Amino acid sequence: MESALELHDVSRVFARGIVALRQVSLSVRGGEFVAVMGATGSGKSTLLHCAAGLDRPSSGSVRLAGREISRLRERPLTRWRRDRVGFVFQSYNLLSELTVRQNVALPGRLGAPRTRDLEQVLASVGLAGAGPRPVGELSGGQRQRVAIARALVTRPAVIFADEPTGALDPTTGGQILRLLREAADRDGVTVLMVTHDPVAAAWSDRLVLLRAGTVAGDAATPAAPVIADRLHAVSTAVPA
Ligand SMILES: Nc1ncnc2c1ncn2[C@@H]1O[C@H](COP(=O)(O)OP(=O)(O)OP(=O)(O)O)[C@@H](O)[C@H]1O
Ligand SMILES: [Mg+2]
Prior knowledge:
about 240 residues; alpha/beta; Rossmann fold; six-stranded mixed sheet; four-stranded antiparallel sheet; 8 helices; 10 strands; binds adenosine-5'-triphosphate; binds magnesium ion
């Protein structure tokens, strides 16, 4: 089976020579749930943005859902993202003056095809009947469910999540992680999730550790206490 996501020697250099990623290579299978961890500034968000086509690598290539995207022009890139990718962020990125249903319907209104039945998606994330409610009235956990519903409604190949449970209590966070886990298991969605939390990472199949913009670990996800130890090791070790 072809990889859902393929990064080959991806580097990202920002202004003033800040190297956020150094020749990162990564291949992720369809339906795989990958957690990305590392110290603050290690390049996790940059990796996610480059992989998702929200940012362009300075060098190297990114293949997303079967298409080379790193040198794609802006319009076809936007369309590719809209149709193949879902995003879930720590800050939800919802329009709070719109209702739940209007937020989840947004990708379709922007022209995304293959949309699933809205009510069915809302029910699948535990928001049955919440469609008419303004998002501004919802709790953090409910907002994150809306964000996941919006990410799922286009039947994406890949969901990118940057600290999706960072603003939630452990119980609510667990419910959100279960939804991501189900998307991978039931719908074959590939999930790439950045987190600082070993308990959140323990929901994944595979753990990628970043240190100073390089991959310092890439293995099957161990139990949370072992994750915490490995994260501590890559966060304190002096980079070569
Ligand atoms: N737009 C930008 N311009 C300049 N430097 C940037 C930019 N975005 C990120 N960086 C730098 O790139 C490095 C990696 O940043 P990144 O946001 O990927 O880290 P991170 O691992 O996500 O950190 P955190 O855990 O704090 O979210 C940092 O040194 C950061 O300052
Ligand atoms: Mg980040």
